[in-house]
Design brief:
alpha+beta; Aminopeptidase; 2 domains; seven-stranded mixed sheet; 8 helices; elongated
């Protein structure tokens, strides 16, 4: 049975001695790969493993993770000539895909291969990896999506469902949410706003809205114009928070606005929301635009700091 183990004193020499056929130059040597793993050791995101079949070391794999992008990369995988053609590669990759999917940490996986390596192309595409159209260092890049999570501009029907969910969970300020639903749908139909939803397995779990008209934004002067959109209504259902879903939606929204010709985005945050301010600064919102006071439909007033970011 295929299993993965750390590189230790016991298997180090065996892993180093593994060789590909002389005529093949598709994969770097395991010694070079381990040197790269050591080089990036402080990042804590590169993981070399020995691949075993039961108790016998039969191959080598090195993974690289990008938690911000929720991506797991199979950076290297190799089997020496004596262990090729036995199905170990297929089993190892399938097992890594299953583990990555079960972890919930990653939305997709990436791997690549040399164009002349037709065996790798056949194995990887058979497992479900598909070409992205990119070429990296002369190699064809493949991708496999792990989560059924999509980001999109919301439809009217989806808005109705999401707002009814928010109203049902609103508590004492339910009337505010009823008013916000009505105005949000009106603004979308008038082309004054763009609602963005993140949908996982058919359920709307995250959202954000881009306001495109200064007239619908409190303190809108300097926050919205023909090239600047104001971002608001950032929400993710609690059980899905901290898993990168909103980050993916947020980046999708910025890309979509950029494609629509917008050059800058702004947002507001309450002064005491220190954690949110740090998150927005990480996203690049470091330009302080102004301060202001906003009012809820029920008359509640809140202080707000406004920040901006160029997106083109």
């Amino acid at each position: 049975m295929i299993n993965f183990r750390a590189i230790t004193e016991e298997n180090f020499d065996t892993i180093i001695r593994m060789k590909r056929p002389e005529e093949e130059h598709f994969v770097a040597s395991n010694a070079y790969s381990l040197a790269q793993a050591w080089l990036y050791r402080d990042n804590n995101d590169v993981y070399p493993f020995a691949i075993y079949n039961d108790e016998e070391p039969v191959g080598f794999m090195m993974l690289d993770e990008d938690l911000e992008e929720r991506c797991l990369i199979i950076w290297r995988i190799m089997f020496p000539v004596e262990h090729q053609g036995k199905g170990y590669g297929t089993k190892a990759i399938r097992q890594i895909v299953d583990l990555a999917r079960e972890s919930g940490k990653y939305d997709f996986m990436i791997m690549d291969y040399a164009p002349e390596n037709k065996i790798a192309e056949h194995v990887y595409t058979k497992l479900g990896f598909r070409p992205t159209g990119e070429i990296s260092n002369g190699e064809i890049v493949l991708r496999m999506d792990l989560q059924d999570y999509i980001c999109k501009v919301a439809t009217l029907e989806e808005m109705d469902v999401k707002w009814d969910y928010e109203i049902a969970h609103a508590g004492e300020d339910r009337e505010n949410w009823v008013i916000w639903k009505k105005s949000s749908i009106e603004h979308m139909l008038q082309g004054k706003s763009l609602p963005y939803y993140g949908i996982l397995d058919g359920q709307i779990i995250s959202e954000a809205t881009a306001m495109l008209d200064a007239a619908i934004v409190q303190n809108g002067a300097g926050l919205v114009d023909g090239k600047t959109a104001y971002l608001s209504a950032f929400r993710t259902i609690e059980e899905y928070q901290g898993k990168g879903y909103f980050s993916k939606l947020f980046h999708f929204m910025l890309e979509d606005l950029r494609d629509r010709g917008y050059e800058k985005v702004t947002l507001g945050v309450e002064p005491e929301e220190v954690e949110n301010k740090q998150i927005y600064a990480h996203y690049g919102f470091t330009e302080h635009v102004k301060n202001g006071v906003e009012m809820y439909p029920d008359g509640t007033e809140i202080e707000v700091e406004y920040y901006g970011k160029k997106i083109s």
